[in-house]
Amino acid sequence: MFELIYTPPLKVLCTGLNVQYRFLNYKRLNLDIYGGYKAFFITGPNFENVPPRRNGKKDIGYINVGLLCQFNLGIISPFIDMGWDSINTIGAQVNFQAIYRKLKKRYKLNK
Q1: Which site among 6, 19, 40, 104 is 20 to 30 Å from 46 CA-CA?
Q2: For residue 1, what is the DSSP state?
Q3: Mean pLDDT to the nearest integer, 3-30
Q4: CA atoms of 77 and 90, how far apart (whole Å)
Q5: What would the 3-class secondary structure string for 6-17 be?
Q6: Contact 88/81 with Cβ under 8 angstroms?
Q7: Is residue 65 within 8 Å of residue 81, measured between CB atoms?
């Protein structure tokens, strides 16, 4: 999983690369646990869970662990992400391949 987080006006701009493991897959409901590295491009607010370095300054990157709960509806899948770093995200994943398959079937599109 790759994530890009931005909050205006440029207080937080970071990216994360995570490895996920799905431990619940019940019909349309998925529950994943993930872990990975999150790096900040622009230092923002002080996150209380980010450990300070020896000189007392906050790091611009850290290991993050979290829980992702997703409800699959086909083309769109809303999710809630709760991270160890106190960043909670509500969003939706869009499946462009499913949209293309529907259009291809309906209009007989060629590659």
Answers
A1: 19
A2: -
A3: 81
A4: 11
A5: EECCCCEEEEEE
A6: yes
A7: no
Long-range contacts, 76-85 (Cβ 8 Å, 24+): 84/49, 85/38, 85/47, 85/49, 85/50
Tell me how far apart the alpha carbons of residues 93 and 34 are, in angstroms, rounded to a whole number: 16
Indicate whether this model's pTM tops 0.70: no
pLDDT digits (tens, 9 = 90+) for 70-111: 999 888 999 999 988 787 888 888 888 878 877 777 777 665
Q: What stretch of H or E contains 95?
A: none
The secondary structure of 27-83 as a DSSP string is: TTEEEEEEEEEEEEEE--S--TTSPB-TTSPBPSEEEEEEEEEEE--SSEEEEEEEE
Q: Of all residues in the chain, what percent carry a pLDDT higher than 90?
A: 21
| Per-residue b or e along 78-94, where b marks 16 or more CB atoms closer than 10 Å to that residue's CB | ebebebebebeeeeeee
